[in-house]
Amino acid sequence: MFDFDIELARRYGVFASYHSHACPSIIEHYGENPATEVDRLLNHYATAESTVLEIGSGAGQTLCDLAPKVKQIWGLDSNEELLGATRLRAERLSVTNAIYLLAASNDPEATKSLPDATFDLVLSRRGPKFSENLLRTLRKTTIFVQEVVSNLDGYPLGEILGRRYLTPFAGTDQEVLLHEYANLGIFPVSCKEYFYEEFFRDREHLASFLTQVAAMLSPWLLPQSLPHKPYDPVQDQDALDLYVRYNTTEKGIRVLRQRKIFVLRRTEITS
After folding, report:
1. What is the chain's alpha carbon radius of gyration, rounded to the nearest angstrom?
2. Is the Cβ–Cβ distance between 92 and 2 less than 8 Å?
3. Which of 135, 140, 129, 177 has the alpha carbon at shortest distance from 267?
4. What is the pLDDT of residues 102-127, one digit of tens each?
5. β partners of residue 73
6. pLDDT in tens, 13-35
7. Number of neighbours of residue 210 by Cβ within 10 angstroms
8. Which residues pair with 143 in a beta bridge?
9. Closest by CA position to 135, among listed 43, 45, 268, 260
10. Which sequence spans correspond to the domains of the chain?
11. Homologous superfamily (CATH) for 5-266
């Protein structure tokens, strides 16, 4: 961790792939680790001739790790502070083949400087989905590696805190994503699902995690126009107490986590 990472780790924590005081004290994967699988897939598909686009590059950990293995890599993120950390990390690690763009992936105006027909590998590590306005930037056989935080992540924490409807959605997040991508000519190669558990020492430890990782209570399936309420230590006190009451184990307070990892490919459909 570099000097510029210290404050970012305190504020963003695992949201930006940092280790911090709010990280769980125990993580039980019971087999494969989804983060290890994403690394394996990127190492498999990235070559010395690859031009890569990372959507939601965050503080640049993955970008800087992948950069020496590829021809060129672009980092796209809408958080100016995290993108600044990516630049600093790349400088400290002597990365010279990276280009950075401050933009939301679904903003055509902000992403217009991205080159046409360029990227043969696109990745999103718990970041935004691919948007239609980026189609012009792809080559004909582009590969996608996408990790998503799925709709059972944290269940039933979001439900008890009043952020999500009770019970899972009738249409799963996987069906929604694959349907949207199929309409763009992007089709699945593989879909892997992971459940694991995290444990927190006590109520205060879990509360600090929810404060730091506000996205935990904002499921990605909901429209962006809906208000996403971060954890409120006053208003959410009783609800969190109820969750703690029924989810305390010998290892600590249990939180269910879920990830899905997709490999997809672009293909042209002709009639």
Report:
1. 19
2. yes
3. 140
4. 999 999 999 999 999 999 999 999 98
5. 52, 98
6. 998 999 999 999 999 999 999 99
7. 22
8. 121, 265
9. 268
10. 5-266
11. Vaccinia Virus protein VP39 (3.40.50.150)
